[in-house]
Structures are given as structure tokens and as C-alpha cells.
Amino acid sequence: MQKKVNVFKFGGASLKDASAIRHVGEILQPFAGDSLVIVVSAMGKTTNALEEVAHAYWHGKPDEARQKLHDIHQSTTAIIQELFAEVPEELTASINDLFVSVEWALDETPNEEYDFDYDQIVSLGELISSHIVAAHLNAVGLPTSWLDARDVIQTDNTYREGWVKWPETEERADRLVPPLLKETNFVLTQGFIGNTSENYTTTLGREGSDYSAAIFSYCLNAEAMSIWKDVPGVLTADPRIFENVSKIDRLSYREAIEMTYYGAKVIHPKTIKPLQNKSIPLYVRSFIEPELEGTFVTDDAGDAYPPMVAVEPDQALINISTRDFSFVAEHHIKELFEHITTTRLQVNMMQNTAISFNVVVNDIDDRVERFCTLIDENFKTTVDRNLELITIRHYTPDVVESLRRGKVNLLEGRLPLTLQMVVKDVPVMRRKES
Ligand code: ADP
Ligand code: ASP
Ligand code: MG
């Protein structure tokens, strides 16, 4: 019988430099006899740096774009030289080819669609890291095949947010991955990237490598998926923002979906659903302390949870009212949602009164402006920006109270298990020196 596959995902923080990559090799040693599909993100902050390349290029600054790309090439080369006593020739060739292909692209006139150019450039990060990590694993005695994720993950052509074509992707995963796993126990591939039917590269949305791992897990009917993070597991809140957080040992798929959708950044929100559909367990584990158990996400995780908090920054509250002073009726809401869809606004909260409709959305690029322009003929809008959406699952009065301190609450919604508030900071009043 064929061995069950496990899927592991390593994010940018776990691959930030040569010693981090060595550490990933050490984490993988005990699994040498298992069939593993390993999904990697770009190293460290490479994706942010590549976004700057794409931005400069598309805004008519090709020299700046070339310089930024050159800097990324140099830091990549430095990592490779530190990692290998003798750099494998094929690795040098692959990395050089990848950089040259983007350098050439920078000589061309930008495409009409920014998102298209963005994906062709920014996808470089995962291609680079996957070649380096695969070469390292082979060098330390862990035979590993390199797989181009674009041969498997097929998407539509919504650049920067490709929608997965599941039947095509499943067919390719089934056809391409098992033969590689027969050759080597480990198959290593890229997170974040996919391919259109015209053979152009797409990306799945920032932080999308967790989602890629879930796509592979689903298509390969994996035994389990593990994502290795810089935290001990899923915590009651982001430790970068809150003190006294604690680890949750077991979490249901539903809780995980609710928390990640509203901004718990530890797992990409699209990750859970494919796993839930096939009851594939998810482990969120620490790459810093790999011997610890982490968080186990599964079907039946009980329902006694402590209060859990997710904070989503960069929110905009759009207050909409009709120009003809009529009530906001169903046909208005229909029109508004059509424009919400075309401008790709993500609505996190909404509330209506007789004469106004309020939506809270992620304030990305110029989407809010485009939406307001599109509805301008029939609706008046006012926009409040730089807001935070705080979501508390299993809320208690004291937690709500502590989170409200020093904030103005602009909108609030309560369900039995979830409380959400849209807040902005208020400067703390102090008595003037006399
Ligand atoms: P990756 O390297 O895989 O991309 P991320 O940086 O995206 O990992 O996710 C890990 C980070 O998520 C942590 O460093 C932590 O600051 C943040 N985070 C936000 N909410 C939570 C939470 N509820 N539990 C744990 N970590 C959280
Ligand atoms: N490298 C991509 C990003 O930084 C995808 C990921 O890391 O998940 O957004
Ligand atoms: Mg991430």
C-alpha cells in the first residue's frame, strides 16, 4: 500500500537566512522515512522587497526597479554562499536564470494591468527559496525533488488573488506528485503561486503559502498538514500586540475559520476550508521549539474556549446615504453590492439604519475611492479611515472593557459568541503644566 502523504509548510520567518534554512533541515531529519510534500514561502521579507520592484517598474522607474532587484540578487547570493561549502552548479544556474528572466521583463513596457506585472515579478521569491531549500536538503542527505507549483495549482486570471480551479488542480496533483514521491521521500514546492490556462503566473494573495499547503493537502488526501511558525501555536491573541496570551491546544475548524477571517494572522483565512472538507487535521507548530506539541485543529475540538481576540488594522468605515433622501431599500443594497464586488472590497461588518448603510472594509490600494466614485451618482458617502476592527470570540465583559480603553467605538455588533467593534484611537487627555 502507498504511504500516506504529510504536508509541511515553512514560512518566510523560518527561512530568513542560512542558519534558519539549516535549522529547517534539522527539523526535517526525523521525517526522512516519511512521504512529505514541503511547501515553502519566500525567504524573510523577500516578497515585500519584490513588491517594491514591481511598484517602481510599473510607475515608470525602471532604474530604481533594477537596482532593487540587484539588491535582492546580492542578498540571495550571500545566503547561498553561507549555506553551501561548495555551491551546486545547477543551483547557481537556476537562480541566475530566474533573476535574468525578471531583469529582461523590466526592459519591457509595463502591462496595462498592474496586478498582472505584480504576479510575474513577485512570484520570483518562492521560486528562489524553493531551489535553495531543495538543494540544501539534498546536500544534507535528505533526497528531495523540486516541483514547480505552477504545474499543479491552476487558477483563473484574477491576478494577485487567483481563484483555484479545483478539478484541474486535483488531476495534476494526482498525476505529478506520487511519481516524484516514489523517487524521493520529499517533494519540495512553492507556496503562494499558481498558473493560468494561458500559462501566466498568478499569486493567491499575500500570505497565501498556508493556503497552497492546504490545496496540496486536499488534492493529495494528506494524512495531516503542519505549518511551522515562530509562535508555539495558535494563541488567544497576537503576541506582538497583546501580553498574557496563552496557547490553545485544540481548536475546531469553525473557530479557526472565524478567527483567521477577522485577522488572526497566524493562518491564512482560506487555509482551513479545504482541510475541513476532507477532515484533514492541521497542526500549528513552533519551528523555534519543534519538540513542543503546538495547536491541533480538527473536527471535534470541544467548545470550551477562552476569549480569543483578532485585530484587523487598516479598516475604512463607509457611511452611505441616498441622494434623493429616500430610505435605503433592497434595490439600493443590491446596487451597492454589485459595486462592492467589482471593486473587490472585502466587507467585514455592515449595519443599516432607515437612511444610511454602513460598511466596514479592508482599506486596500484605491479600492474605497473607486467604489465611492462608482456610486457617486445615486449616493452620498463619508469615509472614516485608519480604523481597527477588533473581533472577540467567546467574549467576557472584562475583556471587552479592557479592549475599549483609549478607543472611540464607531460601530459595534454582537452575536452570542462574537463581539466586533470598529474603533479608532483617541489621544489621552492630560492636564497642561501650569
Ligand atoms: P509565516 O512565517 O508562516 O508567514 P506569519 O508571520 O504569517 O507566519 O504568522 C505568524 C505570526 O502570526 C506570529 O508571529 C504572530 O505575531 C501572528 N499572530 C497573529 N495572531 C496570532 C494568534 N492568534 N496566535 C499566534 N500568532 C498570531
Ligand atoms: N511570500 C508570500 C508573502 O509574503 C506568501 C507567504 O509568505 O505566505 O505574502
Ligand atoms: Mg505568513
UniProtKB/TrEMBL annotation:
One GO molecular-function entry: aspartate kinase activity
A single GO BP: homoserine biosynthetic process
Pfam family, one: AA_kinase
EC number: 2.7.2.4
Record flagged with keyword ATP-binding: yes
Keyword line: Amino-acid biosynthesis, ATP-binding, Kinase, Nucleotide-binding, Transferase
Family annotation (InterPro entries): AceGlu_kinase-like_sf, Asp/Glu/Uridylate_kinase, Asp_kin_monofn, Asp_kinase, AsparK_Bifunc_asparK/hSer_DH
GO cellular component: cytosol
Annotated Aspartate/glutamate/uridylate kinase domain residues: 5-286
Tagged with keyword Amino-acid biosynthesis: yes
Pathway: Amino-acid biosynthesis; L-threonine biosynthesis; L-threonine from L-aspartate: step 1/5; Amino-acid biosynthesis; L-lysine biosynthesis via DAP pathway; (S)-tetrahydrodipicolinate from L-aspartate: step 1/4; Amino-acid biosynthesis; L-methionine biosynthesis via de novo pathway; L-homoserine from L-aspartate: step 1/3
Annotated binding of ATP, by residue: 240, 265-266
Reactions catalysed according to its record: L-aspartate + ATP = 4-phospho-L-aspartate + ADP
NCBIfam families the record matches: asp_kinases
Homology family: Belongs to the aspartokinase family.
PANTHER family: ASPARTATE KINASE, ASPARTOKINASE
Name the record gives this protein: Aspartokinase
